[in-house]
Write a structure and sequence with these properties.
A hairpin with a 5-residue loop joins strand 3 and strand 4. The protein has a single domain, classed as Jelly Rolls. The longest helix has 10 residues. It has a 17-stranded mixed sheet that branches. It has a two-stranded antiparallel ribbon with strand order 2-21. A two-stranded antiparallel sheet has the order 3-4. The protein has 321 residues and is mainly beta. It starts with 9 loop residues before the first helix and ends in a 14-residue tail after the last strand. It has two helices and 21 strands. The radius of gyration is 19 Å and the shape is globular. This is Peptidase A4 family protein. InterPro entries: ConA-like_dom_sf, Peptidase_G1, Peptidase_G1_sf.
């Protein structure tokens, strides 16, 4: 699957600079599929992973000046090579998801590293199914400027740009079935200057696709990849706070959901993006980007894995053209 985040013309960058951050929302028209640049939302669990991490296990990682710090992960955190956040699955075998919501602030990524990329999104499906319906934001550095887009996607179709938005804007997103086979993806963007825009995208799904996306719900910070499944340099998102995380009108951690935290781990077993525990409100958490690594070498004192039943694993998402 390929996404199509079109380069923003220099004149639009000039507008953003001229009016100041938080003042301008620019709507994009349909994009040409030949301009694909990023691959989003392919879920890559660590291929050799057959375990979860111990409860509140502390993972040593190299920090600047070779000092050692620790990261406390939520219990039973899964490892992925590109996703971090939370994945819910229904506790009931007959359960199915038909709505999801969440909100976050678009991060102000550093501009001193060209071509870095980051994404945040919510979606239904995609963890154990090849069907995925999602909406979110993507940031990248272009010509020394941090730029952001709102996108939506229905696999296996390419993702579509909707609008360009200023960094530090707040976005509220919801996906829900409205009637029969019609689904609505709605977002409201509020800039730091107070400008607000709401837009709804409607799409039609057949019963088989609805069944596929009903199997999981996600709130994810991601490192996108190219069409060869090679990750782009990850932009430092800092700490993203996800709020109003609801599925089927219930809290993220409601008893009707199996809750699966996910951390992004590099090929050398360094934690790159990791989630916090869920807040006491049951609907908020953070993801934190950890790029202050002086070594990509595997650590000898990395915690030994705990083996578990493979039936509880999240299944890999295969790359789709």
């Amino acid at each position: 699957m390929k996404t199509i985040f079109k380069k923003i013309p220099l004149i639009l960058l000039t507008l953003l600079v001229g009016f100041g951050t938080g003042s301008t929302i620019i709507e994009n028209g349909p994009q040409n599929a030949t301009n694909n640049k990023y691959v989003l939302s392919n879920y890559f669990p660590r291929r050799n992973l057959v375990h979860s991490l111990p409860t509140q296990q502390q993972l040593p990682i190299h920090q600047l000046k070779n000092s050692i710090s620790t990261i406390n992960l939520p219990a039973n955190t899964e490892k992925s090579s590109n996703w971090a956040g939370y994945i819910d699955t229904p506790t009931s075998k007959s359960g199915s998801y038909t709505s999801i919501s969440g909100s976050w602030t678009i991060p102000n990524i550093p501009t001193n590293k060209q071509n870095t990329v980051a994404a945040q999104w919510i979606g239904l499906g995609g963890a154990s199914s090849s069907d995925l319906l999602q909406m979110g934001t993507l940031e990248e550095v272009e010509n020394g400027q941090a730029v952001a887009e709102v996108f939506w996607e229905k696999l296996p179709d390419v993702a579509q740009n909707i609008i360009s938005v200023p960094i530090n804007s707040t976005i509220n997103v919801s996906i829900s079935k409205s009637s029969n086979s019609t689904w609505n993806l709605t977002f409201t963007v509020t800039t730091s200057g107070g400008q607000t825009q709401t837009k709804t995208i409607s799409t039609t799904l057949d019963s088989s696709y609805e069944q596929g996306i009903g199997t999981s719900a996600e709130w994810i910070s991601e490192d996108p990849s190219n069409d060869s499944n090679q990750l782009y340099p990850l932009a430092d998102m800092g700490t993203i706070k996800y709020q109003s995380a609801m599925v089927n009108g219930t809290l993220l951690n409601a008893s009707s959901n199996n809750v699966n935290p996910v951390a992004m781990e590099s090929s050398n077993e360094n934690v790159v993006i990791y989630p916090s525990t869920i807040g006491t409100d049951g609907e908020s958490f953070t993801t934190t980007t950890n790029l202050s690594l002086t070594s990509r070498q595997r650590l000898d004192n990395f915690p030994r894995p705990i083996l578990r039943d493979n039936s509880s694993r999240l299944h890999p998402r295969e790359y789709r053209q």
